[in-house]
Amino acid sequence: MAARPEARVPRHLAIVMDGNGRWAKQRLRPRTFGHHAGQKAVREAVEFCLRRGIASLTLFAFSSENWQRPPTEVSALMELFLKALDKEVKELHGNGVRIRFVGDLDAFAPELRKRMLAAMEHTEGNTALNMNVAVNYGGRWDIAQAARRAAEAIARGEFSADELDEHRLHGFTCLADQPPLDLFIRTGGERRVSNFLLWQLAYAELYFTDTLWPDVDQDSLAEAIDDYARRERRYGRTGEQVATG
Q1: Is 66 a catalytic residue?
Q2: Total structural domains in the chain?
Q3: pTM for this predicted structure
Q4: Binding positions for substrate (predicted)?
């Protein structure tokens, strides 16, 4: 086996967890079976990030567009969220994981929203890993709500419209208090970002794999990190400028 490149890990890793439905279909099972199987891969990702010292993990669990799926699947996903909250939060808290749900939570049923808020409050002081779960989230929504909040701040007289620049607007986006996104992973073979973290993706490295989400394990994630470690991130500079610091 070839030697792996020198360790260089991202500070912030985001994953589109795609392929649950196709994984279930291959096994002649309903799509909900794949969503249940995907929970194991979530645990693998959390454990991987804790072992590698990654500061933030953002998972795309339910997009604002996913409400268009069959009602039975949406209902099953909501039930899965409830059960996962009851089952996983205690262990995540014990491992020092801070849970944050990112997105428009008002669309969810009161009981589910209550449990989401309780999980965030319970783990708020943890520092080993920021685990951001994007639910009813869309990148365009994120930018729009940031613009709205900035406009409200201008109306309150906190700063002028002329003072609104990229840096200030960034402060109103989701995850503004966390490290910049370094690596975006999408499983399941699709090669698109699907309205996920559009603002945060500006300088992130993109990695696509055909592996379906329930099949993702430590080795799968290590391959993505190894690929990331071999890349030269230039941020608009030349390769020579990067090499000379």
Answers
A1: yes
A2: 2
A3: 0.90
A4: 19-23, 31, 35, 63-65, 67, 69, 186, 192-194
